[in-house]
Amino acid sequence: MKLTKKQFKQDFEKRLTTKFATDVEKAGPQETLAAVSSVIKAYYSKIWQEDNEYKDETKKKQAYYFSIEFLPGKMLKSNLLNLGILDTVRESLSDLGIDLDAIAQIEPDMAIGNGGLGRLGSCFLDSAASTGIPLNGNGIRYSYGLFKQKIVDGYQVELPDSWLDNGNPWEIRRADKAVEVHFGGEVWLEDDGTGRLMPHYRNQERVLAVPYDTPMVGFENTTVNNMCLWRSEVPKDLDLRFQNLEYMRQTAMLSAELYPDDSNYDGRLLRLKQEYFFVSAGLQRVINHFKNINKVPVTHIADFISIHINDTHPALCVPEFMRILVDEFGIEWERAWNITVKVMSYTNHTILSEALEKWPEEMVKNLLPRIYQIILEIDRRRTADLLPKVGAKLVHSTRIVKDGQIHMANLAIIGSHSTNGVAKLHSDLLKDVELHDFYLIYPERFNNKTNGIADRRWSQIANERLSGVLDETIGKSWRHNLNELKLLEAYKNDENTLERLQAANFDNKLRLAEYIQEHNGITVNPEAIFDVQVKRLHAYKRQLLNVLHILKLYFDIKDNPEIEMVPRVFIFGAKAAPGYHYAKSIIKCINEIANMVNNDKDVADKLKVVFMENYNVSLAEIIIPAANVGEQISLASKEASGTSNMKFMLNGALTIGTLDGANIEIFEVAGKGNYFKFGLTKDEVYEYYRNGNYNAHDIYEQNPIVHRILDAFIDGTIPNISAEGPEVFDSLTTYNDEYFVLRDFNDYVRAQKDLERLYKNKNAWAQASLMNIANVGKFSSDRTIKEYADDIWHVHEKK
Ligand SMILES: *Cc1c(COP(=O)(O)O)cnc(C)c1O
């Protein structure tokens, strides 16, 4: 029974009364949002309960996605869409004089992740629910999500994101399912009388882990999965000796803040504590549930659960699961190990060496003494077992414990039956280079799962205008199966379709132009090419390359104010990790270059540069549908996959990009002429590494255009960057340009010219845009999650 308008209005008005003692006329926006959310929650709760009963009764295998980050964004419209009641609710509210979009907009983003990694987790949870795959999330309920970014005098300023101030309507606190997690103290082993060594503990720090469940509602089906997020609290029965403020502060810290960086390893104790906290709590809950429901010996657990280790942060799943099997269930080591390897699987997300987690042995030993013993034992037994088989060299290079450190990726690979990369190129690099020694030992464990995106959010919700045109052109089947967009190819030469697609994009550009006017005070020309680079700020992503090209265009205009040029609006959105000094300097440079360009009379509206504050999922939903061009210009081999590249493609933007990550697969399916590719290949990059013969300074000396652009950073041309300018200049010259920005510059300029030429031909551009949309099907995370389910977890779709 679908919700009717009448029913919704009744429920909504009743909620306003029971929750806030108010009515439609007097309710403020927060009250309206809370009441709407509450009605929706009641509506799906029934479906959730039924699906839980179904899962318990059928006892089918379930998978659990352990991730230290998720990045869901706003939930209201996504829930409405998936429940199939978006239009009903929009119309009902409209009847009452309320604008759904205005209400939806004030919901805070659930930003308990940094960027791509967390967003992927959320796309997977959406897709799993929408394809009926029993996959549940497990993470941390940070009280403060990713910082809010303000730009002050061109600099990034970080403000706390206290997203829970007005409560979170979607979550349910499950106090009855709280578990304890223990840290520190001493552990020793004693014979239990039967010859088995049992651990005994003293002086451990106790933390209560309380789960908060957020339902993941499937798209127009009956599946509702769960995202479990843990909050740390002080156990109620804690010995009075320990009940002091410091202890309470320490405990609260565990789930207080998200570490605001995802491409650098941070070796701080609190981070390690967070990792064990959500791993231990999550595994305890999974195993408790298994015990209560499945009623088979725990030795069969691998037939009923799968645990996924998303990047290395949850790699402690391996020793913690061993601890539970061996210490708590009394299972003999070898058997427990075989079960653990069957249950666990791992995804690698990066080859950047600065991001690879390794913890000092002393730290692990002090914080997690029993886990430390187990890790040593895993390492010792594996070494003894493999030495005669593969030899000392391979064993040593792949050891978990070496040089006084615990290597988390090694632990994750060794302790699981599957290791995957996130795009073809990345997975090949893992096998051939980065994890080659592991590949030699465990070739059958390696596989690729090219990333995807939850297309419903990135088209049906973010781009209603385009969605409408697609419906009118090819029907609505694409809303259920993104591969159906292929039908659009038949309209490649249909001028009417091309015009309507472009008109949809133009409306989105108007919407973004308005947003920019309001938030940045910059007037942009909606006819201009909207050229967008939105992603975390990192040197390897090469926002600087984009910047150098902007400066080139600027100097072209200064040299010849009459020059013919298709007007461009360059749009940036990027947060820098608060401790990443260089990235913050680049933000400052972008903002000062924006000031210089936007206020130069010679430039008029040929060029505008806009840095949009506080890039997050909600902002992405406004920016990406308005883009003509998506910048995916990382140095080849550095971006494991990228996912914003897929969002742009889905929304009809053309990619200018390097042969990196999933760009390669995008180029493959988009077809020649429908993208702009440039730059070094991964082989050429590795060739430079081998020979050590890259010389950035030579390029600076020999290329007059590059010379002039770089000098602008140090000669006062760009105002207000007295410290940041030289820093950028030096990185590209003295410090030899780690990411080959100068090496790729000429080819990038060439690709940008090709792009400009195509844009002048409106029809050809529209066709290329259409071809991107028509061929984006592969990048639905519905496809990705089915591959994980089939190949790695062996869990099945609900029929
Ligand atoms: C998709 C997305 C990302 C990932 O972008 P990449 O370009 O793949 O790095 C980061 N942040 C947000 C808010 C996103 O929506």
TrEMBL record:
Matching Gene3D superfamilies: Glycogen Phosphorylase B
Modified residues (N6-(pyridoxal phosphate)lysine): 647
Catalytic activity: [(1->4)-alpha-D-glucosyl](n) + phosphate = [(1->4)-alpha-D-glucosyl](n-1) + alpha-D-glucose 1-phosphate
Segments traversing the membrane: none
EC numbers, comma separated: 2.4.1.1
GO BP term, example: glycogen catabolic process
Any GO molecular function: pyridoxal phosphate binding
Keyword field: Allosteric enzyme, Carbohydrate metabolism, Glycosyltransferase, Pyridoxal phosphate, Transferase
Cofactor section: pyridoxal 5'-phosphate
InterPro entries in the cross-refs: Glycg_phsphrylas (IPR011833), Glyco_trans_35 (IPR000811), Pyridoxal_P_attach_site (IPR035090)
GO CC entries: cytoplasm
Family of the protein in this entry: Belongs to the glycogen phosphorylase family.
Function: Allosteric enzyme that catalyzes the rate-limiting step in glycogen catabolism, the phosphorolytic cleavage of glycogen to produce glucose-1-phosphate, and plays a central role in maintaining cellular and organismal glucose homeostasis. Phosphorylase is an important allosteric enzyme in carbohydrate metabolism. Enzymes from different sources differ in their regulatory mechanisms and in their natural substrates. However, all known phosphorylases share catalytic and structural properties.
PANTHER family the record matches: GLYCOGEN PHOSPHORYLASE, GLYCOGEN PHOSPHORYLASE, LIVER FORM
Protein name, UniProt field: Alpha-1,4 glucan phosphorylase
The organism of origin for this protein: Lactococcus fujiensis JCM 16395
